[in-house]
Amino acid sequence: MSLFLRCCFLVSPLMLGVSTLLLSATDSGAATPERDAVAPAAMEAPVASVATSVPSQPLQVAPVPPIPSATAAPIGSLWADTQPMAQVTSVSQLSDIQPTDWAFQALQSLVERYGCIAGYPDGTYRGQRAMTRFEFAAGLNACMDRVNELIASATADLVRKEDLLAIQKLQEEFSAELATLRGRVDALEARTAQLEAQGFSTTTKLSGEAVFAIAAASNWGGTDNQPVFQNRVRLELQTSFTGKDSLVTRLGAGNSPTFALPANPANPGVGSAESFLTFEGYGANDVIIDWLAYTFPVGEKATFYVAAVGGANTDYLPSAGNPVLDQGDGGLSTLSFFGTHNAIYNIGGGAGAGFNYQFNDTFQFSLGYLAGPSDAASPVKGAGLFNGDYAALAQLTINPIQDFTLLFTYLNSYHSPGTGIFNYGGYPSGVEGSSLANFPGGTGAAVTANSYGIEASYQFSPRFVLSAWGGFTEADIQGSGTKNGEIWNYALTFAFPDLLRKGNLGALIVGAQPYLGNPQQVGYAGASRQVPIHVEAYYQHRLNDYMTITPGLIYLSAPDQQSNGEALIGVIRTTFEF
Q1: Kind of pairing between the strands at 228-240 and 96-97
Q2: Could you give the CA distance from residue 575 to residue 231 in angstroms, rounded to a whole number?
Q3: Cα distance between residue 405 and residue 492, in whole Å
Q4: SS3 142
């Protein structure tokens, strides 16, 4: 018994030592989280070297701030944070990509290095803003394309291996979004190709104009003009099939008869057209189609114009020599037809075609043919497209320097009995000029005319434009046996854009309305050769984008070429645009 106790006493220290060694080995090989926790002070102590693979380049690890908690973070997690893209939670389930996500930062690095996104004015990628996954995928796709371009252009050495790995990782994370975007792009390209192949996508724009006008004319020579309140309204449909063409369908109605001027005793029963205003000419507010035309380009330099109703010579011309004041017969044009442009442009009109070709920035050439509106649609003898009234025009437009335009115009026309020469297509008595100029052989004679014009305009500054023109018409009076009539017109116009206020316009027009220069030689023995001087002044005041008020005066020194009288016309025109 004593021997047994003595042996136990000797063996106990040995067992205790072995147990201690076993426990130490266990601690070093299988640590638990509770046992791995160390105090913050212990973290600052040197850590024994750990066998691991070292990158080819030195690994830059940001300093880890002390953990304020009494329980320190696991050493294993601290080591994981130092490894790029290691043990990072996947972003594939996130609805948005935040600037703090590794994917966002990786893409931002690619953008800054390869410049694959430059969507902002300063050409930078703003990395402080979140984006949707599809926006992120679009940016990633751009960077992938950029890297592929570098590789294809034998500049692959400019692409870093780390960036290729990052792109591969991002591509895996956003494979679904990339596939969706590519599918959408393919579908969009297919639809675009279909539209281009069909070439027919109709777009129609509706615009309107309403004119209210209060006007009065002086009474002279037995006339009895009363102050009037007149109106005109137009609705215009502009349709485009290709984006470069234009089909115009315009409806119009109004109640604006012309003021009466005393007739020349040498041509009784025919009134002068010198008082014709640009918004006049309609009946008793009857709605009509007053313009139907189609314009389309052929190639890069040619433009064709086809008019079925209401075509005018100036519709297809690049310029008529009065760029600021000439708005045709619109509600923002001059008060009178005479003030718009050279009177020979108002010879004829109706249905036909025009053509303009631009050789270069300096020269343009135009051709046109318009048949009278009543004749073009009529199949009877003496009418039709080529056997009735017509006007054929040729013009050379020259822009030798900036802001200067020079025009040379020729026009050949035929006018049946009872149709004035300056009739604008639809007004038998004419829209300007004396009765002798419109009917040099009287209302019972047909006339064939050759007209020549020269027009010029120069913009001295954005606030001042000077324009001038002169026109001569040689009228062959059919069957009269007399000398051809000589009809003249000329004018000088002054335009002052933005006068007193931006958007306003001041205008002064001085010239001679069309007049017959040799009345005695064509059978008007007692007619005067007085030149009918026309002076027109007005001011357009734009109240807003939709409403303009234009007060103005027109002075006629010798109405209908008579030397013993004058006429004054006052107008207040209000134009609504919508």
Answers
A1: unpaired
A2: 10
A3: 15
A4: helix
Tell me, yes or no, whether 77 lies in a domain: no
Residue type, 383: A
Secondary-structure percent of the chain, ordered helix, strand, coil, rounded to 5: 25, 35, 45
pTM (two decimals): 0.67
Answer yes or no: is 56 within a domain.
no
Are 285 and 379 found together in one domain?
A: yes
Beta bridge partners of 305: 295, 354
Alpha helical stretches, state H, 318-378: 373-376
| Contact assessment for residue 433 and residue 489, using Cβ atoms and an 8 Å cutoff | yes
How do residues 49-76 score in pLDDT, each as one tens digit? 333 333 334 333 334 344 333 333 332 3
**262 and 125, same domain (yes or no):** no
Q: What is the pLDDT of residue 144?
A: 75
Residues 6+ apart with CB under 8 A from 255: 230, 231, 232, 282, 283, 284, 285
* Residue-wise DSSP of 266-307: TSTT----TT-BTT----SS--EEEEEEEEEEETTTEEEEEE
How distant, in Å, are the alpha carbons of 68, 69, 82 from that of 65? 9, 12, 14
Phi, then psi, of 497 in degrees rounded to 5: -65, 150
**What is each CA distance from 577 to 252, 262, 544, in whole angstroms?**
14, 35, 10
